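@channel anyone free to eyeball this complex?
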Amino acid sequence: MSNIYNPKMSRRESLKRIGTMATVVMVGGVPVACDTAEPEVNQAPVTPSAGHWPDIKLDAITGPTYGTDPIVSNPTAPWPLTLSEAQRDQVAVLSDIICPADDRGPAATEVGVPDVIDEWVSAPYSGQQRDRVQIINGLQWLDDEAQLRFGSSFVATSVEQRIEIIEDIAYRSQIEIDEFELPASFFSRIRRLVFGAYFSSPEGIQDIGYIGNVPIAGDYPGPTEEAMEHIRQVADTLGLPPITEYVNR
Amino acid sequence: MASFEGFEYEVIIVGSGAGGGMAAHVLTQAGVKVLLLEAGRDYDPVSETPMFQQGHEAPLRGVSTSDKNFGYYDATVDGGWQVPGEPYTEATDSRFMWWRARMLGGRTNHWGRLVPRFTPADFKPYSTDGVGTDWPVDYDEISPWYDQCEELVGVCGDNPGLDDTPSSSDGVLLPPPKPRVMELLLKSACESLGIPAVPMRRAILTEPKDDREACFWATPCGRGCSIGAAFQTTTSVLRWAMNTGNLKIVTDAMVKEVHLDEAGKAAGVTFVNRTNRADVRVDGDHIILAASACETARLLLNSSSETFPDGLANSSGQVGRNLTDSLGAGVSGYIPALRDRPKYNEDGHTGNHLYIPWWDREGQKDGSLNFSRGYHFEVGARFSSPGMGVAGRVDGFGKDAKDEIRSSYGTSIGLSLRGEMLVSDDCYCEIDEETVDQWGIPVLKFHWKWSEQEINQVAHGLEWGKKIIEAMGGTVNNPDRTAEDAIEAGGQIIHEVGTTRMGDDPATSVCNQWGQTWDVENLYLMDGGVFVSNPHKNCTITILTLAMRNASRLAEQLTA
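replying in thread with the prediction:
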């Protein structure tokens, strides 16, 4: 834990101490107020606070949807992207922490995951707009937390410092910890989006080993001999009746 | 002989889905001239179907939205749970979801193509268990028509000979595809529990047929099928009917009223031309309504007159009543023994190759079950194209999480319960006197309430689903979920039928066994509205079969 980090500190106290931290977030070039619009009263925490959370309020996106009869054979997304450059950078850094390059596949940013996230949170559908509120706040929380712990933005911290923060919110069990409830929920959501976007990309499809969506002439070939041998062993291990290949009567 | 835009015809058909499409085919093959009115737009599956497009090419990776409820690539045009400008309402404390499409071919463009036959007992529910009402037809009468319909449609599957799976005649069925390994493991697990798992019948060509190509084992059927391997009326019966020269199709024709002549016969209909909002009156000697169970009921109820103040052909008061859907609930789980299993192409025909038919009629006979009828389980268990839900189970981050997703790919199983609900006075639709759609047509209001029968059946299914998944060495997601929580909304399974039921008695039914309304002799009903009960078997093959049979009789009369 950082020396300056005080998990008991309320959001407003943290704002005062950080001083330089942005209290306005730009969304799609439009400034969106944080909680500064609320009356500056009752600033002292009455009860021990459950950490901090920006609680940025966002106006609903009311832009064009693709409608109920899009040209599905030639897909397009008609809504404008709304993440600021800084937010996209943050998503990029976070995406590669969640989904780094390894021996079996590239990193999230190499397959355009931040673009997918931007399209996602900018979409004028209710589910995506709920995600947008959670993600914009989560990204701001990461910056706030990085300021509190290390005195710089999340993106400007060192790799080790970022991981130190992520380690506190990356596991579902941490949702049970009061101060990390909202940040850990945010992380769970963006992890799902990042991996979903990665594994549904052409590179991700190859990585995971999906080999369908190709036309096959003649009969469906069915399982390979290797797959059959494997499933026979599984049935045997589970004490189930032997696998029998289907014979058409 | 009436005429429209220079085309002379005898019969008007309202609706181009399963019932209307089949009726158009049968009549035009027999030389009868038909004017077919479709509320939705024209639709060409050959040029419009997104074959092979992948999730990453679509907005939001193709996930479901309020515009496209079954995902971006689903074939449904201008529809889903809501049709723009065409609302429906629900009574207080009622929840009902009504899926509609506004396109040529209707819902046949996207349906699941699961086509189990009804059994002899399914046609005689009252005689079998003393509950509900018998159909005015029996299995022996319908069986040859099932054969003929399956032959025409193209059905793959086999005849396992169970009491829930009546056999087709020799040579009717096309061979089913080989099961995938998870389905084989499921079959083995079911065997250990003493229940069957057999090939699912699907309206998929596993061999070439007439002018349609065989399935090439790729791209989900719900998008529609440009090669005609997955049955839909737009690639088969409607096309064949057009080729006879005896059919004229008018799309964007939203029928709002059926007219009577002074003799009390149906004289014609008025439709709204959706492109210019003009009312258009067309006449016909015979009128077939196949607009879907609820749309047909709505049309009859909106066609009231001095003779029929409560709605056309509604002297029985049964129009809109007896509405049922299939029961729906899902049980899903994770099979750790299948981690890192060998990869191969598991697309197959993209539906389940095996399913679990209902296995315990004996349990109903001996009273050991606390519900009537039964259900089946459809199976979802394969390596499918990875989508936005691929990381649903994973925790943490980085390489460990990435590896976990790779290892657990292809370890999920979903069992979808599809059960028979009982006909109930609590479930019906009527005209909402306070709401009209964008064409000025009064809309439907739905009333719905599950009974203990349905809750008990779902509870049984949750218990058995858990047993099956655990027999596979798996763990069930949400094991503590109650039947009340698990049961899906009325209408959500999109098997809504029964609103204009057939029968032997004009006092308790809307039409006779030929779909001919008791009150108006030249008015016929050929969609799922005519069902007397709603066996757990997916309804479309029986809609197609009854339409084939009843349109054949009409064709004989008209050409005699």
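from a first look: The radius of gyration of chain A is 23 Å.
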